[in-house]
Amino acid sequence: MQADGVLTSVDLEAENQRLARETFTEAGFAPQRFRLIAGAGLEVMPRLTDAGYDLVFLDGDKVEYGEYLDQAIRLVRPGGVIVFDNALWHDRVADPAQRDPETTAIRELLQRVANDENLRSVLLPLGDGLLAAQLI
User: Fold this and answer.
1) Record keywords: tRNA-binding included (predicted)?
2) 3-state secondary structure of 68
3) What pLDDT shows up at residue 1?
4) Which helix H or strand E contains 123, and what residues bound it?
5) Superfamily in which the 50-135 domain is placed by CATH
6) 6: closest CA among 40, 44, 48?
7) pLDDT value at position 86?
8) pLDDT tens digits for the chain (136 residues)?
């Protein structure tokens, strides 16, 4: 991160926010280098600055992944990267018999990203899968 960069974290869980603040402080990060916002992603993201981010990492309600993508595309600057966690969703995404709402939403996200000519993407089989897409 550049010297004047700021890490922004949005999380519903107060305990996660407390632990993040504690970790950043113990690691020696100045308070102005990170911003912790309590709230739901789809409530907070619309209030964040357009093209103001180099990286947006998303891990939330899988059914909302398509809406997260809409917001993330607006938030990252050209060359920025959007990353989704759980892109393989416990190996369910590759199994066509799995049709639960979460698995279906992730499949739709993967297809949408693959078909978007403004995104260059890669699906990494790390952990439960990471989808990384660069805004061209």
Assistant:
1) no
2) helix
3) 80
4) strand 119-124
5) Vaccinia Virus protein VP39 (3.40.50.150)
6) 48
7) 98
8) 888 899 999 999 999 999 999 999 999 999 999 999 999 999 999 999 999 999 999 999 999 999 999 999 999 999 999 999 999 999 999 999 999 999 999 999 999 999 999 999 999 999 999 999 999 9
Residue whose token pair is 């995104």: 119
Count of beta carbons in the 10 Å neighbourhood of residue 128: 15
**How many whole angstroms separate alpha carbon 97 and alpha carbon 60?**
23
Map out the domains of the chain as residue ranges: 1-39, 50-135
Of the candidates 50, 100, 55, 94, the one whose C-alpha atom is nearest the C-alpha of residue 75 is 50
State how far the Cα of 63 lies from the Cα of 65, in Å rounded to an integer: 6
Q: How far is CA 95 from CA 16, 46, 88, in A?
A: 33, 34, 10
Tokens of 94: 């590759």
The pTM assigned to this predicted structure is: 0.94
